[in-house]
Structures are given as C-alpha cells and as structure tokens.
Amino acid sequence: MLDAPSRPSARELLSLSSLAPLVPMLYVAWTDGELTGDELRALGSAARAQPWLDLKSSSVLALWVDPLRPPPPRELALVREHIRATAEKLATSQQQNLAELGVQLAQALAGEAPLSIPPAELAKALASIEATLGVDGKEAVRSLVPRASRVPHAEPRSHTSSFDPTAMTAVLDRTYANVRRQVRGWLEDADFRYKEGLGTTAYRDQVFDWLKHLANDGLGQLAFPKGREGGGDLGAFIAAFETMAFFDLSLVIKAGVHFGLFGSSILFLGTKRHHQQYLPRVASLELPGCFAMSELGHGSNVRDCETVARYDAATSEFVIHTPSETARKEWIGNAARHARIATVFAQLEVDGERLGVHALLVPLRDEHGKVLPNIRIEDCGEKMGLNGVDNGRLWFDHVRVPRDNLLDRYGQVTEAGEYTSSITGDSKRFFTMLGALVAGRVSVACASLSATKSALTIAVRYGDLRRQFGPQGAPEVRLLDHQVHQLRLLPLVAKAYAVDFALEYLVDRYVHRTEDDAREIEALAAGLKAYASWNATATIQECREACGGQGYLTANRFASLKADTDVFTTFEGDNTVLMQLVAKGLLTGYRQRFEDDRVFAVLRLIVDQAATVFTDRNPIAGRRTDTDHLRDSDFQLRALRFREEALLASVSKRIRKRLTAGVEAFEAFNQVQAHLLALAHASVERIVLEQFLRGVADVKDEALKPVLGRMADLFGLSCLESASGWFLEHGWLTAPKAQAIRKERVKLCEELRPDAVGLVDAFGIPDTCLAAPIGLGRLAPGGERFDDTAADSARAGPADSRAS
Amino acid sequence: MLDAPSRPSARELLSLSSLAPLVPMLYVAWTDGELTGDELRALGSAARAQPWLDLKSSSVLALWVDPLRPPPPRELALVREHIRATAEKLATSQQQNLAELGVQLAQALAGEAPLSIPPAELAKALASIEATLGVDGKEAVRSLVPRASRVPHAEPRSHTSSFDPTAMTAVLDRTYANVRRQVRGWLEDADFRYKEGLGTTAYRDQVFDWLKHLANDGLGQLAFPKGREGGGDLGAFIAAFETMAFFDLSLVIKAGVHFGLFGSSILFLGTKRHHQQYLPRVASLELPGCFAMSELGHGSNVRDCETVARYDAATSEFVIHTPSETARKEWIGNAARHARIATVFAQLEVDGERLGVHALLVPLRDEHGKVLPNIRIEDCGEKMGLNGVDNGRLWFDHVRVPRDNLLDRYGQVTEAGEYTSSITGDSKRFFTMLGALVAGRVSVACASLSATKSALTIAVRYGDLRRQFGPQGAPEVRLLDHQVHQLRLLPLVAKAYAVDFALEYLVDRYVHRTEDDAREIEALAAGLKAYASWNATATIQECREACGGQGYLTANRFASLKADTDVFTTFEGDNTVLMQLVAKGLLTGYRQRFEDDRVFAVLRLIVDQAATVFTDRNPIAGRRTDTDHLRDSDFQLRALRFREEALLASVSKRIRKRLTAGVEAFEAFNQVQAHLLALAHASVERIVLEQFLRGVADVKDEALKPVLGRMADLFGLSCLESASGWFLEHGWLTAPKAQAIRKERVKLCEELRPDAVGLVDAFGIPDTCLAAPIGLGRLAPGGERFDDTAADSARAGPADSRAS
User: Fold this and answer.
1) How are beta strands A317-321 and A308-312 bridged, if at all?
2) How many independent structural domains does chain A possess?
3) Same domain, yes or no, for B746 and B613?
4) Residue range of the domain that includes A138
5) Distance between CA atoms of B287 and A677, rounded to whole angstroms?
6) Are B70 and A73 inside 8 Å of each other by CB?
7) What keywords tag this UniProt record (chains A, B) (predicted)?
C-alpha cells in the first residue's frame, strides 16, 4: 500500500477558524460509532461543498473524515474539551442541535469580528449537513455539552450575610494577598480546566504542561529568584501553593515535589555551587527533579534506609547502590515519567565507615528522557487519586556520580576521602537534614486546608438552595434550615477558619525560624500537618454526605477531592508517626523545664493549676452556664491548656515509672502510645484555638468581628464538647455545664446560619477551580445561580437576591 | 477504495491456540505506540513465516497486524486481561521477555497436552520475532504482567490463632451456609476477576455479563423460584447478595437493582398475574428492569414526588407524565443502558382525584434496546464509584400503559375508573407500599458489612507482616505490635462481628415478619442500614490509613472499596433521614406504652430505672473497676439500655413541651433533631450489642467462646468509651470507672492480638475477590505469603507458619 499523508492533529484542526462550525459534527461523526465509511465520506463531501472553506481547511477536513484514519481517543478528547470550553463561554446554552452549536462556536471564536458568512446562512448550510449525519442532533448536543448544572430549586440565596465577604477574603489573604491574587489570575486562564476522561499518561503529561505553564508564569521564581541563589521568599511560594490547591491537586503535588521537595533539598542541603548550578534550571522546570527518600521497607523510618553511597577515592566518585528489594526507592513522585535527576538519600560510606544518611544528586534520564545506564525505573501504577503525578520506583546498580554531587552543607567528603561535618553526632545531623522536609509538611497542611474549603464551599452553597421536607402544606425547607444540617456543616466551617489562622502562624514562624527554634517549628509543622489533613478527610466526607446523591456525581468534585487528599494523612510523614513526634517534643520540653529551673517551674505549674482550679472549679465560676461565660474565649482556652498540661504531666509520670522499673525505652513508649497521641492532639488543638483567637483579635475591620467572634466560640466550644468525657472525668466540667455547652453550640449555629454562604464565599475560590455545578458562586444574568429556570420558584419564601 | 475483510475480534484471536505464543507480542506491538506501519508489517511477516501456524491463524494474524486496522482500546483491553488472567495461573512469574511469556502462555493453555512444537524451539522462534519488535522485552513484560505482589517483609504470620478459623467461618455462615458456599464457588470462576482500565461502557457491559452469568448459575432462582410465583427464599437471596459483595460492588448493586428492587416491587406490590407474567423473566434476566422512585427534586421525600399516572377510562390506560424538570426520575440504576422496563412510582390520578403514590410497570426499551417513543433517557454520568452501574434519568411524555400495568396489590382501579383499596388512608397505604424498600435496606446493610470485612482482612493481614520502628539494635516491630495499631483495628474487627450478628437477627426478623411487626422491622432495617453503612465508611478509611502508602495503590483495593461504598450512606434512604425514622418509631412506641396501659407502664419504668440505679449507682457496684465487673456483659448492656431509655424520656418530654407551647409539629421536631439522632444511635447500638451477646451465647462450639467473649467485651466497652461524656454527665460512670474502661480496652486488644489474623481469615473471603496483593491469605509453596523472597527474613523473630 502507498503511504498517504497523515491525519492532521486535533490541534491543527481546531486552529482553523473556518472549520469551527463543523467541529461538533466531526466529533459526533466519530464518536457516535454507527457511521459507515460511506456516511463519513458523504459528510465530508457535503461539508467540503461549502463555499466558505479555503483549500487548507478543505484538505484537513478530508483527512479527518477518512474512514481509514480513525482519530485516536486522545485526539477526540481534545476536540471534545475544546468544544466544551468554548461552549462554556456562550451566553446561552439553548443549542437545540449540532448546527446551532456550530454557529455559536463560530461566533464565539470570531469574537467581535463579523463572521465571513451571515449566521442565518451558515445555520442553514450546517442544518443540511447535519441531516446527512442522520443522528439525533438534540441528543448529541446534550451528551456533547452536558448541562451538568441542571440542578433543581434554582432560586436566590437565602440571606444577605451580615458582613462583606470581600473584606473577609482580604483578611484570609493577608500577608501574601498579591501572590494569591496572582495565582488566582493564572488559574483563570482557559488552559486550567479539568479535563475529563484522560488516560493516566495523558493526564500526567497534562499536569506537566500545566506546571510548565506556571513555571513560565513565574511560579519557580517565587521560590528561587534569579540572582539570589540563597533562595527566595518561601512564604510567598507556600501561599502560591495553597492557592493552587483550589485547582487540580495532582498539579499541586507535582509542583510540591519538583519545586518544594527537590528544589528545597538543593537549597537547604546543598551549598553555593549547587545553588548556582541547579536552582535556575529548577525554577524554569528545565531540569525536572524528584526526591528519593522513602524506600519500600522504610517509609516512616527513613533513618534505617538501606541504599548505599560509597565513596571511591580512586575516581573521586560516589557509588550509589540498591542492595536489596526492600531498599528500592518507593513512591517517588515525578520519577516514573518526567524527572531527569533525583535527590537520593543514602547511607554514606567513606573508607569502610558508615556515616549516616546523606543526600546526593543522581541523574536519572538524559535530555531525551532516556533512562541512564544502571538505573531501573518502574511505575508504581494506578493510585486511588493523584494519578496526574507519576510515582515511580528506583533501583541503582552501582551508579557512579562525581564527588560534587553530594549535597554537602552538613557533611563533606574531601577528594582524598576524609569526612568532615560541623555536626558531630550522626543522629543530630540526620535530624538537621530532615529539616528540609518541614516546608513539605507546611505545604501539605496548607493544601489540605484548601481542599477542605473547596468541599465546604460546595456543600454550604448547595445546602442553602436545596429543599427537602417541610411543614405540611408549606414549602419544603432549605437543607441548611434543618438543625442537623447546621450542626453538620457550620462547626466545620468554623474549624476551617481556625486552621487557617493557625497555618498563618505556622508559615510565619517557619519563614522567620532560627537555629534555636527549628526543632519547635518542626514539631509545630508535624502537628498541624496531621491536624489539617485529618480534618480534610473528615470534612470532605461530611460534605459529600451532606450533598446526598449529587455529592456522588463526579462532576460535583467530591470524588476527586476525596481521592486526591486521601494520602495527605500518609505522605510527608504518616500522621500517627508525626503526632508521636509532637508528643515526644513536648516531653523533652517538659523535662527541660524541670531541669532548667526546677524550683521555679514547679512553682509556676502549681500556681497555674491553682488559678485554673480557682476560676473553674470553684462553686460559682465552675458552675456558670450562662452564654457570657461560655462565650468567653479565656474560659475555652484555659480548658484546652489545662487538658494539655494535665496530659503532659500524666504521660511523663507513666513513662518515668516504666523506665524506672527497667522497661526498655521503645517498649515503655509503646505502652503509652495512646496517651502520647492524646497529648499531641490536645497540644495541637490548643495552638489552633490560641491562634484563631490571636488572629481574630488582630483583625482591623470592626465589621468582621462579630461573625468571627461567633466562629471562634463555635470552634472553642466544639473542642470542649468533643472531649467532654475527658473534661467531666477530670472534674473540669460539671454535667449541667456540659449540657449548656451543647445548647450553646446549637444556638451559635442558628446565629451563624444566615452568614453561612458569605463565610464560604470569603474563601475566594474561583468558579473555574470549584467547577462543581451545584456549588458555583456566580449568578446567571437572571439573578439565579443555575441555568435552569426555577421550576418550583412558587415555593420559595421571601429571600434576598445578592450578587457575590 | 475497496472494502477489505474486517479485523477479527479479540475473542476470535484469543480462541486460536496456535496464536497463543504470539499474543503478548501482538499486544505490545499495538500499545507500545511507536511501531511504524512497516515495523508492524515486518512483525507480521516474521510471525507468519512460522511453520506451526495454520491457514486460519495466519490470516487472523495478518488482519491483526494491519497498520490500517488499529484495534480499538476495548479490544486491546480484552487481550491484556486474557494475558493477565492466564499469567496468574503460572507457577512462576519469572518471565524475562515476551518470548518466554509467550511460551508459558502456550503451555498454560495447552494444559496437560504437549505443545505442537518443543518449547525450546518455540522459544527460539519467538525470540527472533521479538527482536524484530525492537522493544525492551523485560520492561514490556513488567508492565504487561505487573507483579503487584512485590511486597516487602515476606515472612510467616506472627501467631497461630487460639481457635480454628474454619469453625468460626461456619458460625458466621450460619443458616445459609450452603448458599454462601455456592456463591463463593461461583465467584471463583475465572470469569470473575477485576478488570483494570475498562471504560465506563465496557465496564457496564462487563457487569451485565457477570450478572447474566450469575443468573444462569441460578441467582435469580433463589429469589424467584420457578413455579412458585409467590416468591422464594428472600433470606437465601440476601445471603447470596452479602457474599457477592466480597467481589465487585457494581455487580452487587446491579443485582440489587434488578432482582432486589425491581423484582421485589413486582413480588410485593403486584398480584398473581404480575408474578406469573414477569417473575420468570426477571429471574432469568431476560427482562432487565429498574426501579424508578427518586426524582430530582424528591430524593428522601418520595411522598411529594411529582410524576403523574392518570387513568384514562376511555382507553383503559394509564398516562404516565413528567410534569416538570424536578419531577424527572433521577439516579435510576440500570436505566441508562440495560433496563427494558421500569417500576415507576407516580401520583395516581383517577377521575380528577389524587390517590397518592402508586407503582406501575412502564416499558422503556424494545427487545433491541431502542428507547420507546415519548420516553427520554439520559445518563447520570460518571460517579465517584459504582461506575459499572448505569444510572440514568427518565422523562415520560404522556406515555400510555395498559391498566394491567398498575401493581395493584394495595390499590386497584376498575376498568370503569373506580378506585378501591383495602387500606383506606393514603398515608398508611403509602407506608405499606414503601415496605417493598425494606429488602433493599437489609441488603445494603449486608453489603456494607462485606465491604467492611474486605478492608479489615487486608489491613489486619498487612499489619501482621509489615514492620516499622523498633528497639535500638533489634528487629523492627510488626505494625500490629504497636499499641496504637491494635487500638485502630481490633475494635473495628469486634464491631464487624457485632454487626454480623445483628444483621443475622435483622434478616431473621425480616424473613419471618408479619403484618403486626412490619413497622418495627422497617425501623430496625433503617437503623441497621445506617449503622452498618456509616461503619463501612469509617472502617474502610481507617484501614486505608493503617496500610499507609500501600493502601493508596489501586491494586490494594481500598480505592474501589471506598469509592463504591461511599454512596451506601445515601441511597436506599439517606442515613440521617433513616435515623430520624428510627427515633420517631421509638417515640410512637413510647407514647403507646403509656396510652396502652399507663399505670402499669409507668410503674414498670420506675422499677426498671430503680433497678438500674440500684445496681450501678450504688456505692459498691457503681464504683467497681475490676476486670470481672467490666467484662460482665450485663453491666455493658444495662449501660446501653439506660442511655436509650433516658434519651427516649428526655426527647419525648422536649417535644411535648414544644407542642404544648404551640410550636408547629415540623418545627418542634426540627428543634430536637440532634436529640432524635442521638436517641436513634443509642437504640441501634443497644440492639447490636444485645444481638452480639445473644449470638455468642448461641454458639455451640465451646472452643470459640473465649475469643468471641473477648470480642463482645471489646465492642461493649468501646460503645461505653465512645460515649463516656454522656455516661459521666448522667452520673452513670464515675471518673475512675471511665479510666478503668480505657485500660480494659487496651488489655483486650493485647489479648486479641494473636488472634487478629484468624479473626479476619474467618470471614472466608476468597483470595480472588480480595485481590489485594498485600492482603492475600494463601501462602506460597515456600510457606511465604508473597512471591518475593523474604529479603530480611533474618530479622524475623520466632514465629509459627500456618496454612489457612
């Protein structure tokens, strides 16, 4: 057979504006699946007979209707996405058939410029072509441009909120407001739209393209500005990361792996020559990298990793080797497809001596993407979510890298093979190096919060509109007017705000950290990462259930929010392990408090506790159940402080008792593991409440104070209620007070109900990122949220319509 | 161009045994994506030069390498699945290249029969063909037959359990042991394997094929036996359903929709003529049906549905009509693709009079699958999970059906247009008809439990083998030897057993229901459906997290378990709504208790409560914290009974107070909604513990009693601990006792630890259903669970190896 010219790509097809009106029909012709070759050819002839087609368009069209050249699904998906994206911009979505859709697409693409032929004439021509297609055009349009937004009860919002959501957004955007606005702007580019139905490979490549787009926009420069090889503004980068997490989470994690983990490892563990040589290419994404720390047998326990980096003085090289199957690098993001280099953590061996875990740069692929010799890479395969990230496994078979590739800020090897380090202890050096992970944990905490906000925005907006059940003979009631629905969602909104202020504090502490408080900040990051990611899992689940069947539709986003965030509780440190780290940090501090100044500390502790007891256990204050008392943030905070302090003293005593009795240290800690987790939780929650209150106190805008005050009360009382067993057990709450707290929460939810939608609007999530038809914020021209007319608007009670 | 012969289907290709050795190369040739037409042709020539190919094979092969006939993805997926399924059966998985894989496939297919050419010769020929392919054969085999089972720390199980898991399986299989064994046998057929990467349409068709397979095996006969049109053994059908839920949940739900909802609607709402006309074709799946109850605007609130069925006496027909967009039937399983008929719930209108919701049979598609006139069907689109079920939307435009199509057991319309019913009240009739839903709720509860068991089996087996952290200088410790890991998983295992016995009770009550206890059983089903499905969501999540990164891989099943079960809390009745139903049932009963025999009832209540107070609040018993007392099931059960009774009295008082004050009924209930849910939860949990204890007491096998006793204690004390706030508040627990309960739980977990794996083995889930490489039960010939050698077996402590 002769070789014919190849079919032009979808991109080429779509670039030809004169073909625009025909694109929907072309798509349907190939996907309808029942057209014979003859029918395809007939369609081609009819189309090519149109006088408005130039020669090039005509020949492209001919190749696109060639029955022997079926376009692959990936190409057709591109065509479909193009049609959908363009259709999204149309003022009306009342296309009745493919011809009308074609005309509208042509008009949308032409913009202000007039069409080359009058619309009416074009419509007529297209209608005649559509007839040759022999499909039900109405049906075809419906499946091609699904009006997923067909949601019932389209009606105005229930309330105008008591505050200006835009002013609240400014509060939440705070220090890095500019960066956040900038990223929102980037994400509103038409390129950043969820693509349905991409296969794994195509999805990964899409994510890489998006990342490249962001790198070009300037994302990398935020973290690693040109000419400042010492590093840029990590706080700004984290704010950007948090904002990006309103969109596709694979993109966020891929960005985190490349810029955050890989880039930061060079920044923090490398020295100036590494910075100069690598960071500019990291910032531009010319050199995609990965972070090879975890091993199959050593996930949480990195210190016992097995990969070896032996120094060969004869050649001044390090030899990287994977000695066993459990030593293979596992779950390495960016490794399966795109990374050309890796930061590899390995046991350093110099002259037969083991010097602990160090990091080295190891090239993985050449510039054409071909894997280098002696390196084996395997795909981790399909995951529950985040399938846009290419996680891989790595094996090294005596791979040699130059001596310079050791990231040697904390440990150096001379050419002759002498090891030097400013930190003498292996263990201390190891933990200092692990500090490079802190930015990752901070970022995951922030991304968790963004996903939480997305879910809450969708669920609260839906709950405000959807009606179900009601008094006999009266309109049904909005879901958010059901008591249980308020209790389901509003405390979670309050908690999201609390976490927001706590993360502001974390980022601020992190950005301004010194050597002295580095360990404290590591513990803070560990604790808040665990708290925020567990909260994401729980909140997204509750929101999904609160949206019922609608929440189960992929289009409404909970599917991806759930699947993508599910691993947040595991990666960058398993939450259970991190919380033990927090507890151990507290125990160390506790011991030091006594060792440093034993007498004073004991005295202070006694005084503190006495004050608590005096205020809260005395017959008057302890039994107060009035609103003023319960909504006194001091009262709430003292409760959480008391719990933390009591648990700390108790765990410390338990461990000392065991150690004194000769129980081995690991076993002694294992026996109180549940207590350690309770202590860590108490401590983190105290910090969250403290920072929420601090943040609210700092707000300048007086108009926002009442609603923020209620939110803080709701969060504070929710903390108390969820641990009421503990507080009752320790005599800190009495039964009537526990009951009063429950009542007060119900009251707070009622009071916050009218502000519910405003509170989620203030998260400032772009509609294009949110994407869920049941959760969009923009109102259609008619003042309604959705494109359906309010079928039962007669039912709606009096309500205010408000543009957001 | 001339029409050439069409490419033979994948099925044809795979049926030719002489092509078997070439199949892997053919697959790789098409999926590698980089072969040019010439390379394809070269491959074809090389292959066809082989002397062992007969003419037919040769021509099929030629068409499969024709560059102009790329096989569609669906066909390639079939080929891949065939290769994988065959490769699964191979004793070794050490194929190094495509040629070796080809030889092994040929041998596997040939079975005992000798190959037509000697294997060595075949291998040589294949190797030369492979060379023409120019791909990395090792890499290709790795991605074609992923050895997902490469899991670390392959080592023997930690303990031999204290009991015989097989005996425990017999206890759990109980009444319907035969049915369960039969279904396990069906599922072990090679046809029932998870298929990766199917598109939605292919997946739906696969599920339909599976269902057809099961119908042929006899599944439908269980529910609707031939010749017994009154119905068969629903208990047996539910047991089959529960067992099927160890496998693909889309299949289970599809079976539930067709046999359960659709079939049962005919059985329960229809009369003899419907049974005779339809049930045999329902049982055989000749007539796939769906159950059209929910409407877009009326999910939980079915009574307000809008679809109308107006009787036209002139033609003796009913006219089914969708009057508005909110009235469209929504989420109808089986509707988007396969159903040919629907049971439609609609407001019956006879002679201008509205008679409430009734059910009618409405044909949807003709025997060729073409949608009938005046019916519109739309696909609901992609969902979070269960994408093998084709949920659709239905609109009826004055569709006419014969008078006979009214399912008229509870309400009849004469030809002249007169309505008759044995139940006078519309409301009572409506709730009687809703009774048809009960089987669905029972089934969802059972399926929830099965999914819970799958997750627990995987997580417990993995936790028993995976090691992480440990004492310095000693082997790392198995996850399940960490205290927190025991506390995470073992109470959930105990709860799964508890739910198992509670569901046995529910099914038994359901099967033997009478008109008198129908309402009580509906409430029981509603409550246990909510309890079991919420438990599934929570347990699967905990298990996923307990498996860390491994839990996030699709291959390890949590992804589908989570996504597929997520809607269980929503469909067949939203859990929150169901729990309110439970509470309202209790309130009705409470009122009746007083009305029926006020004096006696009050007296009994006082006596009951006095007894409780006497036993548990007196200074001696109330403060006992010893093991004997805490592990006294009477003590645990009294606690739960006290809570239920106290909440019931309190809620009743609150509602009465409001109603007396003139608050409108809906609003009065709304104000105590949170209390209603607490009451429902307390009641359901009391029933679960009661039935667990009853079940354990009934077990004949004395050897199982100790472990079951510990499990019941763990469940009972977990109930108390999770509500310790409430019990402390109500003076039912003292602080030292609450603390003692916590300690006792830790101790119980320690005691149950060695039995953990045995307890999940007893669930009896076939390995082919479980499928998760980290959770399989079979041991490889070497006594190890996985196919990797135990890289660190040196680390393993003394342990017993045990076949399961």
Assistant:
1) antiparallel
2) 4
3) yes
4) 10-144
5) 56
6) no
7) FAD, Fatty acid metabolism, Flavoprotein, Lipid metabolism, Oxidoreductase, Peroxisome
